[in-house]
Specification:
It contains 24 helices and no strands. By secondary structure, it is mainly alpha-helical. It holds the Pfam family BPD_transp_1. One of its GO terms (molecular function) is amine transmembrane transporter activity.
Length: 529
Amino acid sequence: MTDVTTEVKVTAASDIEVDHEALDRSIHEFAGPNGDYYVKAFHKIHDATSAVPNTFNLWAAVLGPLWSASRAIWGMFWTFLILEIIAWVQIGRGAWGNPGADMVERAERQQARADELLARAADATEKADIDRFTKLAANIQKAADASFGKAAAAQSEALSIMITGLLMLLVFKLAQGFYADRVYEKQYSKWRTDPDSTESGQSRRNMVLGAVLVAAIGPLIVYKFTVNASLAMLDAFPEKEVSALILGEGGGTLFSNLASWMEAQIDAAALAGGDVFDGIVAGVRSVLDALTIALIGSPWPVVMLVICVTAWRAAGPRVAIFTASSLAYIALLGYWDVAMETVALVGAAVLLCVVFGIPLGIWFGKSRRACRAAEPVLDLMQTLPAFVYLIPIIAFFGTGNPPGILATIIFGMPPVIRLTALGMRGVPDSIKEAAVAFGASKWQLLKDVEIPLALPSIMTGVNQTILMCLSMVVIISLIGGGGLGKEILEALQYAAKGPGLLGGFAILFLAMVMDRIVQGAFRREDERI
């Protein structure tokens, strides 16, 4: 029995030794140069029982960001590059800078003003003028003396500023030395799980790149913040000089030439495609007119009743009560017609977004190539400031409600496209394979399997599109759009705080009503499922 136990212990010890050898080889492979040091350091980190650093990397402390760059630890590189630059700025301010330069300039301006007032007092003939100029000169002289005193005090602190910078640099160096091995050990752990996407070893290319970044960033920042009068080229980009170099003298600026060219191209495109743009406007206007007749042309009690019943059936009695209260607020304050016009604008935009957005989302969800091609366009539509949309919209489609709807569509369509594509990609392959195995055609697979399973994501996209379209009602009023946005714009123009807030609350209640109805309808659909 004893021999068996001894044999088991020996076997276990040999297995542990083999594991340690494999780990050491792995660390050597990861670290490359100076691998023995990192083997010991990583073992110390593994065996440590507290979070206190128990290793110190001398080369990381001495080389600083250059060591981080050579080991491809770019987060640590940028962090300590910024911190060390701050320390060097403090050292430069104390060593060769002039901390009180601003106060000296201010004091000199005040002194010149005081001397000017004294000269005017000397030239004055009436006693009242002499007393007034003398008093003003005395007051400004006191301010100048105070500024000179502050400048002298700031200049006397130069040594302490330099010492502070040296202490900061020392602290940052020590921090890099103590934490470098821990950060590198975490990178080693990532490398073991995913060696293809994690850099290992010591790279000369990264070292050179880090040195170039340090040399390009550090000296310029230190120079800019420590020298009293830096080069004008560092303060402002020499746009005129570069334009003259490219276009020649008298050729204008790049901005003026490029702006003129773009304006000419837009005018030519608007003239060439006038019939197409007019047709698009006519189509949008037909949708808007239909909704406007239904909401404004119908008697207001009918419209209010239909909306409240819809809220009740879709989201329950609480949402119906809230909807009725919101509509009562809108009607009592005289916003009924403009609010219904806003609903028509948003409804037309949302309808067009859904009609075009959901099919595009289905296509992008099924085709990775189409999705990758459309991704930059969707990013542009969603991130470009909304005011920028208005420029080409006015150029191609004119002003008024239909062009405003087109601008709203550009801003509101990406969510429904993205979330529809996301829902389509989220349908499990096993379910689709089972449907195909039972003989489902492509149309049946889409209609009966994929769309129902992707419906939660699609409805979330529709909800987001509604809210984003509603957020555009104020902006489209800038190009002649009506509704509550026009009321808010007029309140802004005349700084009418009360009307502006009341109109803003009306928009808020409309948004909340639409959101609650859509979410409630979707929630009830989930409960049925």
